[in-house]
Amino acid sequence: MGLLELLGSSLFADPGNCTGYQVLYDKLVLQVQCLNAKDTLQCLCKVPFDRLNSALNVNGTDGHSDYNFSPSIDGDIVTDRGSVLLKKHKYARVPIIAGTNTDEGTAFGPMGVNTTEQFYEYLTDGQHGGPFKLPHSIAMHILHLNPDEPSQGTPESLGSERVPSKGYRWRRTSAYVGDVAIHANRRRQCEAWSETLTLAYCYRFNVHSTDVAFVEGSTHFEEVAFVFHNIGGVGYDYGKPFAGVPESYKQLSKLMASMWASFIHDLDPNSGVGSSSVHWDPYSRHEPVDLLFDANVTSHMEPDTWRKKQIHYINSMAHKYRR
Asked: Residues in domain Carboxylesterase type B (predicted)?
């Protein structure tokens, strides 16, 4: 079976956080009474779901869970930075589905960035919660590639409108954060898979559901309800993603769920979609394409060139990114 989906920052494995994660791991096994077990990991595997879920989702002082495990270079499972491993083709050569949502950055972008100077500080000094401390030259080029023009920011659906309540430059910074945290990783993975002639089915999800504010656009996690055909919104306490939507949304969900199930069964997302006119072509070096999932127009293949300059630069400078 192929790896179903790759999420997050494969390019930016943290080179120095193993010790910190060990502290978190020890705290978790203590909390669920596995600390004295001969094999603590095996013990965790046997902890009842409700107890483990409760332990993992206790919010810390910042309102988020204390447990946030990201890839880190441990010399064993992760032997080097993701950008290096992809370039050397040191990865499991199994078929994948890899995709992102158009407006990913609205879920991660910094709030309250009102000036270009503040954006620069975010890039170079970690101000306003910046995830990386970039050299001056790289930061300046990022500012150039992400101009202070709202229509070039995210979400795309807002046109030239600004969102002062989130920051006068919020759409600008959200576009960059979406690229660096999600989009650049997905594109580089698809490219790397094609370089070894390994199947990669890549996509861009471009639908706004009703469980988030319109200003968030097609933000992070919005495709999940579609993939699982969760029309009733089971588990969604803060809003139902399909409440009051056109029938085209439900039909898109049916298509996506069929494609994911087909991929799991046959490693081919097209095998079980019947008479659908939508066909998902794999990524290739000669024809880098992704499937644009949309409910307002018919889903279709598109060249994988969306935000090409910004994403190419991030991937070319991946070795310079440090937390």
From this structure: 27-295
pLDDT for the residue numbered 318: 84
- Name every residue whose Cβ is closer than 8 Å to that of residue 46 and which is 6 or more positions away in sequence: none
Nearest to 205 by CA among 184, 183, 177: 183
Cis, bond preceding 147 (omega within 30 deg of 0): no
pLDDT computed for residue 8 by the predictor: 47
Which tokens go with 277?
A: 């006119």
pLDDT of residue 18: 73
Residue 284 · residue 200 · CB < 8 Å? no
Distance of alpha carbon 153 from alpha carbon 203, whole angstroms: 20
Q: For the chain, which residues make up each domain, given as ranges? A: 3-15+75-321, 17-69
104: nearest Cα among 243, 3, 7, 11: 7
> In CATH, what is the architecture of 3-15+75-321?
3-Layer(aba) Sandwich (3.40)
Say if residue 307's pLDDT is above 80: yes
d(CA 289, CA 296): 20
Alpha-carbon radius of gyration of the chain: 20
DSSP string, 11-50: S--BTT-HHHHHHHHHHHHHHTT-TTSSSHHHHHHHS-HH
Helix (H, G, I), strand (E, B) or coil at 303: strand
Spatial contact of 3 and 96, defined as CB atoms under 8 Å apart:
yes
The two three-digit tokens of residue 275, written as one number = 């008479």
Q: How high is the mean pLDDT of the chain?
A: 90
Tokens of 64: 């988020």
Output the pTM of the full model. Answer: 0.88
Residues 6+ apart with CB under 8 A from 297: none
| Nearest in space to 56 (alpha carbons), one of 92, 17, 29, 83 | 29
- The pLDDT tens digits for 202-226 are 999 999 999 999 999 999 999 999 9
